[in-house]
Amino acid sequence: MNTKSTTLPGRSLWSLPGLRAKSGPTPQRKVTRRLPVETIWPTWALVAVQVAFLVGFLLLWEAGAAFGLVDAFFWSRPSAIWETGLIFFDSGAAYVDIAYTFRSTLMGFVIGTSAGALLGMSFWWSRNYAAIMQPYIICLESIPKLALAPLIILVFGMGLSSKVAIATALTLIVSTLTAYSGVQAVDKDQERLFYSLGASRWQVFTKLVAPSCVPWIISILRVNIGLALTGSIVGEFVASQHGLGRTILYAGSTYEISLVWVAVFVLSALSMLMYVAVAWLEKVLRKGVVR
Amino acid sequence: MANAKLALNDVSMVFKTDGQEFTALAPLDLEIEGGRFISLIGPSGCGKSTIFNIVAGLQPPSSGKVLIDGRDATGMIGQVGYMLQKDLLLPWRTVLDNVALGMEIRGVPLAEGRERAAPLLKRYGLGGFEMRYPSSLSGGMRQRAALLRTLLVDNDVVLLDEPFGALDAQTKASMQEWLLQLFGDFGRTVIFVTHDVEEAVFLSDEVYVMASRPGRVIDRMPVDLPRPRDRSLVSTPRFVAMKKYCLDLLHGAAAPAEAA
Prior knowledge:
The complex is a heterodimer. By secondary structure, chain A is an all-alpha fold. Chain A has two domains: 43-65 and 74-90; 92-289, MetI-like (MetI-like fold, Orthogonal Bundle). Chain A contains twelve helices and no strands. The longest helix of chain A is centred in the C-terminal third of the chain and has 38 residues, at 201-238. Chain A is flat and about 80 Å long. The radius of gyration of chain B is 19 Å and the shape is globular. Helix content of chain B is 32%, strand content 25%. Chain B has helices at residues 48-55, 95-99, 101-105, 110-123, 139-151, 169-186, 197-203, 237-250; strands at 6-17, 20-32, 37-41, 63-68, 71-72, 81-83, 157-161, 189-194, 206-211, 216-222. Chain B is an alpha/beta fold. In chain B, helix 7 (197-203) packs across helix 8 (237-250). Classes of the chains: A mainly alpha, B alpha/beta. At the A-B interface, helix 9 and helix 10 of A face helix 3 of B.
């Protein structure tokens, strides 16, 4: 292509000044350049900037609300949120809601993860059984479980059990698929070694398959805690008498925007707390189990 | 031989894929006396691994029988010790618990298995590593642990599938001497698969040379070199001649001395 264009009539690119084809190869530039290095700030400086950003944002928000630039009716304002937060905690309502959401999340997390892990590992026992179950598992995986929330509320009622059920539904299938991946990743030679030693199926399962799956199950814990919380909140949105999700819904529908913010912040804090706890659990388990 | 420890009677293996038949192992008769060290050498696809899988009961043969001490052991697992190419140590078990695994599967309580394994670890070069995890061991150490695990199960016949294939030359040499020491101490019947002709001759009482397509044994060479053997043996004319004979057979340069 390039060679042809030089034969075209008229002004070719090469005839422009500065772009003229040179005789011989282009000489390389002499490079006199240092390795680019970014100076890393000390931690206190980084934290200071982070805090300054937050404080600046809150001040702008408050000022905006005061001067009418931000509609405090829809967006509330930091001072109002702070006051509402104090009332929320002082009245004791906060603790009831936190306990309620925390309980259903934790129960859904434990039930969904362990039942899923057991179900996934059970597929090791028979390839026929696994093949028969596979389409159903994939179907269940593809259903948006949250869409079933109204149905689950109908079946399990308004109480805690329906929230636990939704949280379980969200975590169960993911855990099943992950545990099954773990089963499939078991080294076939390792299995042959066990059988050559004369092992029974049960011995292979307890001494090889189950321990091999442990790292896979650990890897799903952090994802599942988030999913379980989502399930609980959505359950509370649909129908509930307690919980942070219900508080958000209730406050929103009565235009108590500052309470919405308070509940959202508390929820974030709860979420972070559980995430950190699970991350710690993961670390402990990995140290004890995985080499 | 009526008192053969391990006998293969007319054992063959034919795979059928897409209507095509592939003979992995042509009918083979083999008898091995107790306490002998036998090597199988041959190119890839000559059926060495197939023989091992059949003897270990992990694969039913297309025809024929496997006899151990004269009893039919075809398709029975747990009748022989089998060490695969990889060490296959469980990463979540300590070296000691890995070595005790075979005994544990045979119903020995783990505590007792540990007690029985610990002195052997000390004696065979793994002292001080009992409580370590396999990931912190060198390749040679791991192979030692894997071999001890195999030997601690009381099977008279032990199959070793290229156990030193992945080791560097120096480690390999020391492992061979270590294996000879173990062989002397334990008195098991060993069948050893290797690509390395020198290794086969150095270790064995008998070398079976195999060929592929179809997998078959083309010659059986007795190695009548005295034991215990020393590394200097490999440069003696007798050893070199044996090695050359095997290599020639493997490369198809010489016709086997007797029809297979």
